[in-house]
Amino acid sequence: MRLLHTADWHLGRLFHNVSLLDDQRFVLDQLIEIVDRDGVDAVLVAGDIFDRAIPPAGAVTLLDDVLYELCDRRGLPVVMISGNHDSAERLRFGARHLRKAGLYILSELDRIDTPVTLEANGVTVDIFGIPYADPEHVRSTFKCEARDFDSAHRFLLERIEAARQKSRPTFLMSHCFVDGAAASDSERPLNLGGAESVAWEPMRGFDYVALGHLHGPQYRGSEHIRYSGSLLKYSFSEARQRKGVTLVDIDADGKLTFEWRTLAPRREVRVLEGELEHLLAQAQNEAVERREDYLLVRLTDRHAILDPMSKLRALYPNVLHLEKPGMLEARGAQQLDREKLHFSALDMFSDFFEQTSGEALDDDQKTVVRALISELNKAEGGS
Fold it and tell me: Homologous superfamily of 2-262 in CATH?
């Protein structure tokens, strides 16, 4: 049996106020192509299907389109759990009826010990799902002593362990932050107090653990306890990450193997760093499609620049964020003596004048500006 593990779709997400719905549809079309090309028997989606509890209409439509392609047109089972960005109640609307179509939405804590049983090619697998749940929710549901995320997660695992059939392979899906895993800027903290991680050791007895929440593909403790990562790069801290899905094969003897399939984004997420003139010259040599990437630009220029964003966007239309560490370094290096301040102000005005008029200040103009700056500093000192 071959299963595809994916997670953290975050449908409807905005990236620096830019809608990513078209980008998400682009990679989900690739996911469907992988399903067809690689003979996938079922799809596991480990939470954060939507980016917020009340998703925009376009995000709901996109999910409906993808599930229609998988469940209706291809007849494939899809098993999903709710994540911390989802509304569990809204996500599971119609869940009991949708099971008949092969869509299994696991978002009810009091049903976590009831597995979804899948059969394909002579292999039978039980799949248990732990949706995102904070300790308070676990305590109120089971009247137990769940002090933190780890003790709550351990309690839920114990219930599943008591219900599982050891005679056949068992997969676990969980939306959580496993201790020691690498996080990204785009992941919403599960707990403002910081005690949000869970241990990997209680999960090692499952044949495969399909994790969601962290956006970088990785495993913790053992290779079969895996995060597939998000569909797309949702922050500039993810610029160097690979994005894709994990294919999991299990045979009748319970032997497990993994394969990785890369998803190619409609637009890349990149960080450019350097002086403005160098970056503008570099853009001339880049392919047109590369200029469409989502960019964070760090300018290393140590002098003032008039409207650098407009200049950059003339060549890179999707510059989403601009940083100026060079200016901060220059300010920090300045000595706070009067003479230095006079020349710093003159230099800044000279740069401004040249960028607006296209000509440099001549000596007479510099003399006038220097005198004016001196008078202003005297007036400021006497006030």
Answer: Metallo-dependent phosphatases (3.60.21.10)
